Amino acid sequence: MSEKKILLLSTFILSLIWVILVKTHELPSSFSIDVRNQFTVGSQSAPIHMILFEEFACPVCRDLHKEVLPKIEKEYVEKNLVKLTIIPLAFLDDSITACTLTLCIQKVAPLALKAFYDFTAQLPYEDLISFSFRDFVSAFIENDKNLPAPQILKNLREISFTDEIEKNLELATKIYPGDIHVPIVLINGKLIKDASFKSISKAIHEAL
Amino acid sequence: MPLLNQFQRQFMKRYSLYIAWLIAATATLISLFYSEIKMIDPCKLCWYQRVFLFPIPLLLFPLIWTQKNDFILYILSLPILGFFTALYQVFIKPPCCRVDPINPAFGLLTFFLITVFLLLKFFYSVNSKRC
Questions:
Q1: How do the domains of chain A map onto residue ranges?
Q2: With contacts defined as CB-CB under 8 Å, which chain A residues touch B34?
Q3: What is the pLDDT of residues B24-34, one digit of tens each?
Q4: ipTM, 2 decimals?
């Protein structure tokens, strides 16, 4: 058999293998995420469930939280159309402190959690990655005087939240089995790849 | 004593460029499979290796088709640079990948084999011209 024929045949076989791989490994576009024990705001009877995976040290997540999320809350959550679940992630070393503290506040003072999320999103990036638990708590307590700071610090000393962080990461790897692309936005389980207000809003209207 | 016998030399002379192409094309597909289907982003060093790998099958295809073996030297820089990038990655592996599904040694082996087969083809072509 001549080289040309072998070359053409090999190209055909490789192309065929590629097509089979693409067809058999198509990522699902809809996901079922267990959100028990996760922080949720909005009416439980809301027709739309939005799940947001956030990484504290991710600038895109911070922008989404500062700019897109307030609009979503105003337009949909406050009108009982959407309930919002926020799942904190910490696969970057810089965000482990903020994520651990979030999980601790979720356990000790869940009512203060949304305010804490908003506070971390507004916090300068340099502070976010360099703050200790005590720095976070003392800076946050200026906004929320009712925060049980001693109880939170005690919990942080006594309990390791590593398992919860790992569990959240496992939930995210259901969507992205390889590298996790944050922020992850799911509308009724459907993955929204472009996490802009326009795309999220469009997905909400389609699901309504 | 020659490294290869007459049959092996003939085989290498005829098919080594094709084998190099097959290795490069398969490695390209595997790389694309992990980034585009498994959604695992390549790290910085993997990206450099992709830059050196992806053009090889595209450049070798017309070379095999036209049998212009003199041009092999122009392509040879790609697997050599890829080999050294892979070597750097194997020995000084930066913690830039959260997930590392492929051993970087596969990159090293791929570039090494491509280089060897290209060199074999080049030297046997040059020798046959001299004869």
A1: 39-207
A2: 178
A3: 999 999 999 88
A4: 0.74
